[in-house]
# Entry
Amino acid sequence: MSFPWAEQYNPKSPFMRWVDDRLPLPRLVFNAVGAGYPVPRNLNHFWNFGVLAGVALTIQIITGIILAMHYAANGAIAFDSVEHIMRNVNQGWLLRYAHANGASFFFIVTYIHIFRGLYYGSYKAPREMVWLLGLVIFLLMMATAFMGYVLPWGQMSYWGAQVITGLFAAIPLVGEPIQTWLLGGYVPDNAALNRFFSLHYLLPFVIAGVIILHIWALHIPGSGNPTGVDVKSPQDTVPFHPYYTAKDGFGLGLFLIAFAIVLFFLPNALGHADNYIPANPLSTPAHIVPEWYFWPFYAILRAFTVDFILPAKLWGVIAMFASIILLFFLPWLDRSPVRSGSYRPKFKMFFWILVADVLVLGYCGGAPAEEPYVMISQIATIYYFAHFLIILPLVSKLERPLPLPNSISESVLHGEKAEAAPIGVDARVAPAE
Amino acid sequence: MATVEHPDDTVGGSPEGVRRRDFINIAAVSFAGVGAVAVVYPLVNQMNPSADVLALAQTELDISAIEPGQAIKTSWRKQPVFVRNLTPQEIAAANAVPAADLRDPQTLAERTKEGKQNWLVTMGVCTHLGCVPLGAAEGENRGEYGGYFCPCHGSHYDTAARIRKGPAPTNLVVPEYEFASDTVIRIG
# Structure
């Protein structure tokens, strides 16, 4: 569904008409990412990042399928098969580095995409389902990235699998059997490696499926925009193609330049050197740290050091999962009718404090588990939960939002209506101040 | 840009009315095409034999222990290779056949190294469907022509390993090889 003024798909050639009568796939594409989808005309570059995340997933699937042609999911040879890819397979070094760094870039653009949504109220009615499906994608991404990181069977792979499955052992009574069941043994070994490989191959396709639902849910109300004001008339929108295909193409170019710089000049900068040591069940690395994109959650996990009714380990696990599950309730925690943070001065201030808080958590998650980092993580964790559970509900009650523009087109034109009006359109049709 | 602007947005008085945008479109699509080719190349090339496979592309073999009338099987690129020390009778038998009468006309001299006509080095891969013919090991059936015999579909090869009877289209392939010394050959 879309706005009544959306362009209609009209196949020109008899062949395309023939196809359209039997399988309207070109029509679907036209209405989804073509001229048939009207988009607010005032989107800024933060609206690029959904497409970039889709491109990043595509890069991961293509490079991943190819790596699976050369990789061997067996504890005895997994590490060597990765080195075989790096040294023997034609351009194997390129494919593996693209896959490893592509994961980081997938998370970078996804985090920007999520914070865009947080700032502009993209989670609010009528787009709650888009937000919820996005969080499902995020959870699937985390599971996929974790399992993929285990596959090279280096030290961080092995101990990462040990630590993360160990989280489940914190569950009272059934914890230990669950960890044993997840690993297919008492420690990570062949059984774990094989199932992680199988699931690491499967889940990206599940992600792709949920992305389709995410876009479907988005297209019911249509895209949001930086003002948060609803689309009211044809003057407020432009067709997705060519306007946003061109703009997204520009953003994609910048993304690929940044990706190429890391890929060719800093291919190991985001990784951990210990993962070039083959897995050794008898020796633990000095600092077990996940990849950077898990650091904030790792900090929350490690912030709990005191047994209080439940053991500290369990509190950490509960808090880490709660920090993500909490986001599912965000549409109902923030009651303000104003979507965009641009018109909510207090909300805007707290939003940036939250960004800083998450960055602090990230820094602590990457640091060793010693003072002062433990204390800083504890404070930052408390603030994280307070932001969503206390600050947001209060701010939405107490804050006086700034006056909203009457319409998207008016917010764009700033009284330059006559200048911006298309030829032949009377400028007087635009609403007065 | 130092081009003359026309009201209809064409450039420099070109008759067909080529607009700047046409040039930009072609340039952008061409540039994207170059990028696409650069991306596709590694994605395709990774399917080719990797360095460790190519490393097996040469093998050295000591042939000093092979007596006349004997043959051995060795492996090159994970494929069987037959090395046979022909007896004078076998050489004579191969040379007695007029090459023009054969399905795949070749003389023994063309299939061996000069001055080493008794050393017949061929792939042990039947040219019909790729089975391994018999005749290299002691006591195996050498077929009606005393060379090699492929039992799967009944191809008979003579003492120069040329196809003489049966479905195979061509003679057993002679691989690239050279004599590193009188008793060592280097295949590949």
Notes: Chain A touches chain B through 13 residues (CB under 8 Å). The longest helix of chain A spans residues 190-219. The two ends of chain A are 31 Å apart (CA to CA).
